[in-house]
Amino acid sequence: MESSVGYPVYAINCDLGGDRRGLSLGVNISVDNTWFENPHTSKPSGLNIAHKINETYLTVKSAEWQKVRFATKRFSHTVSKAVSRMNFLGLCDSNSKGLESPEFLKITNDWFDIFNSKVSQIDS
C-alpha cells in the first residue's frame, strides 16, 4: 500500500480506546481502507455555531424580557459571529439589515463587557 505522497504505509497505530474504536468503526477504518474524510468537512450542516443559544433565549415571554441574562446571550460575541457566518454563507437576505447586524451585536457585547467590569483600585 502507498500513500498519496508516495510513501509506503506499513502500519496503522491506534490505542483503540473507547472513543477511537467507535470512530474507527464509524468511518470504516480497516487494513484495506486506511483513510477517511474529516467529519467536519463531510457534514457542514452538522456544525452548530451558536451551541449556547437555545429556543428559550429566542422566545422570551412577558417579564423575562427584562432579565439581563437573556440580553447578554442574544447580544453576545457568539451570536455576532453566527450571524456573520450566516451572511457569508448567503443564508441572510441581502436586502435586510443582516450585513449590519453582526457589527451591532459586537458593539453591544463590548458595551456589556465594559460596563460589567470593575477596577479594584483607582489609579492616581
UniProtKB/TrEMBL annotation:
InterPro entries for this protein: TNP-like_GBD (IPR048366)
Database matches in Pfam families: TNP-like_GBD (PF21788)
Domain Transposable element P transposase-like GTP-binding insertion: from-to ranges: 45-118
Highest taxon listed in the record's lineage: Eukaryota
Name of the featured protein: Transposable element P transposase-like GTP-binding insertion domain-containing protein
